[in-house]
Specification:
The protein is an all-alpha fold. The chain is 71% helix and 0% strand. The two termini are 20 Å apart.
Length: 183
């Protein structure tokens, strides 16, 4: 059985143009995941600062509280693709483990293509959601809250675009495994 954790992106895709494309797509997701890692650090520092301000100085600015979930949204949305790239997602292996490696590759190819299609549809539908927030200059309804709610809502199409990119990379990987074209 192929263990997805054994995938080395430097050689798993092969050396042809399709392989270079797969590696390039995974590089995009890897870099976005690294950005998310720094955002997690920023989130921890922000939450810590909020706790200190609230409990030691009785200060609790609404904008700082809202900023927490303005940082959490990109972490979650970007993190989905990064987690998929590193095979950290939950998989139900009732039948999958019993399949031959070639059958597993077919299952992985099919699910990667299906995920890609769902992501493209989600991006298409969510762009209007972001556009409406931008058009009406949507902001926080709370006094002292953050403006530009469209930036937060833009994380939905961004996250699903990154997930589509990773699904495309996986589609290439499993296609090259099935066809044996990863020379």
């Amino acid at each position: 059985m192929d263990d997805p954790d054994d995938i080395n992106p430097s050689n798993a895709y092969g050396t042809d143009a399709l392989g270079r494309l797969g590696r390039g797509l995974e590089w995009i997701v890897e870099m976005s995941g690294r950005i998310a890692m720094f955002l997690v650090l920023a989130l921890v520092l922000l939450v810590s600062a909020n706790v200190v301000l609230r409990y030691f100085f009785s200060i609790g600015p609404v904008s700082m509280q809202e900023l927490e979930w303005h940082i959490l949204a990109p972490v979650a949305m970007i993190g989905c693709a990064y987690t998929m790239r590193h095979h950290g997602h939950v998989r139900v292996d009732l039948l999958y483990d019993k399949f031959a490696p070639r059958t597993q590759n077919f299952v992985n190819l099919f699910t990667s293509i299906a995920l890609f299609i769902l992501c493209v549809l989600t991006v298409k539908l969510s762009l209007n959601f972001v556009s409406m927030a931008y058009d009406i200059s949507e902001g926080s309804p709370d006094p002292g809250g953050l403006p530009h709610r469209f930036l937060l809502k833009a994380m939905v199409p961004l996250g699903f675009t990154l997930l589509a990119i990773q699904a495309a990379a996986h589609s290439i990987l499993y296609f090259t495994r099935i066809t044996g074209s990863n020379s």
